[in-house]
Amino acid sequence: MNGNLSILFNQTDPEHSDAGCVSADTVTSVHAFHAGISGYAPTPLLSLPALSSSLGVSQILVKDESKRFGLNAFKSLGGSYAIAKYVCDQFGLTVGKNTIQILRSPQYAHRLKEFTFVTATDGNHGRGVAWAAKMLGCQAVVYLPAGSSKERLENILALGAKAEITNLNYDDTVRYAEKMAKQNHWSLIQDTAWEGYEEIPTHIMQGYTTLACEIVSQLKEKGFQPPTHLFLQAGVGSMAGAIAGYFFSLWKDACPDIILVEPDQADCLYQTAKANDGTLHTVSGRMNSMMAGLCCGEPCTIGWKILKNLARAFISCDDSYAAHGMQLLGKPVGSDPPVISGESGAVTIGVAAKIMREPDLAAIQTALALSQHSRILVISTEGDTDRENYRRILNAASL
Ligand SMILES: Cc1ncc(COP(=O)(O)O)c(C=O)c1O
Fold first, then answer.
1. Domain extents for the chain?
2. Of 102, 200, 270, 374, which sits with the fewest C-beta atoms within 10 Å of its C-beta?
C-alpha cells in the first residue's frame, strides 16, 4: 500500500534557466573557501550496487552529507560562505582559501565580536550559522518554528548561539527573524530569497555548490559517468536550484533529468509549477511532516527562476516515502554500505525506490524513462538530526 504521491511533469527550457549565479568559476572559488576551513573533507559519494540491482537500475549513488563538518547536514556550506562573504565585503577583502585564518587574525578578530547574525531555521541552517559565527567570534541568534525538536535546538545552543523555539510556522518565523534583525541592527542570514532580499541567499546557494563540485570530482576519480536522473528534495528550493543550476552550466545537454521532491504538506514548488501563471504560490498553516527541513511554504525566488526551466518533474509526497528511504539507506541490502539518513535526507531515495518497485507507480517510471540503463543520484542532505525519530523509524517494521 503506497502513501500519497502526486507528480507534475514540466516543460523544461534549460537555455532560459537563470543559473548565472552558480557558474563553474564561482563554484571553484566557493570550494576553495570551504577547503580552507579546518576539518574540511569531501563527504562520501557512495555507490549502492545491491540496491540498484534490486531496483533494476544501472547505478545508485548517494552523497552522504551527514559527514559535513561534523554537523550532520549540508547546510553549513551555505551559512558559512554567506557570512564570510558578508564580513569580507565589510572589510574590503576577497573570499578565498585563507579567509578564515585571515579573519581570525588579531587585525580583524576584535571587530568581528561586534557582528550579530540572525536567522530562522528548521534546525540545520541555524546550526550552520551558529557554527560559522562561532568560528569567526561573532554572535548568532536563531529562531526555530513551533514543533521543532529539542535536540535540534540544543545543538544550536551548544555552539554558543542564542536560540529559541517560537510559536510560529517556518515562514512566519522567517518574518520574525527579519523583524528582529531590523529592530536590533543585526544581519539577517536567511536561506531563502524574496523580492528585495536576494544577495545573501544568493551567497548561501553558492555555498551549497561545494557539494556538487565534490560530486563532479568524485565521479571522475571513480570513473563513473554523470547520472541520468537526479532526485533533489526541496524546502524553499535554494539547494535544489543551486545544484541543478551548476550541473546544467557544467553538463549542458548531458545534464541529468532533475526530479524535485517535496512533502505534500509544504509543496510550494509543486503548487507553483501546477498553477503555471508566472507567480509564486505558497502553502500556509501548520506543517506536521517529519521532513522538518522541507517544511517551508514559500518558494525561494532565485531557486524558482532556475528550477522552473530545469526541473523535469515535481513530486509531492507524504512521510511514508521518507520513512521508506531512511530504512533503505540505514538497513542496506547485500554488502551496500549503510548511510544514516534523516527524514529530509532520505525522501528522494524512498521516492525513487517506490517508483521502481510499486506496480501502481509504473506509469511514472515509464514517463521518467527510468530503466535498467539509469544512473540515479540522490543527496542524503542530513543524518539523524532527530535521533529519537530516526530510531523509531529504523526499528519499525518495513515501511
Ligand atoms: C536536511 C535538509 N535537506 C534539504 C533542505 C532543503 O533545502 P531548501 O530549503 O534550500 O530547499 C533542507 C532545508 O533546510 C534541509 O535541512
1. 5-73+209-395, 76-200
2. 102
CB 205 within 8 A of CB 21: yes
Q: Is 122 a catalytic residue?
A: yes
Q: What is the CATH number of domain 5-73+209-395?
A: 3.40.50.1100
Residue 13 CA from chain centroid, whole number: 23
Name the residue of 69, 143, 239 to mutate for ligand 1: max ligand atoms within 8 A of Cβ. 239
- The pTM (predicted TM-score) of the whole model is 0.97
- CA–CA separation, 264 and 283 (whole Å): 10
Judge whether 78 and 204 are in contact, CB under 8 Å. Answer: yes
Question: Ligand 1: which atom is nearest the Cα of residue 233?
Answer: 4
Tell me if the domain spanning 76-200 has CATH number 3.40.50.1100. yes
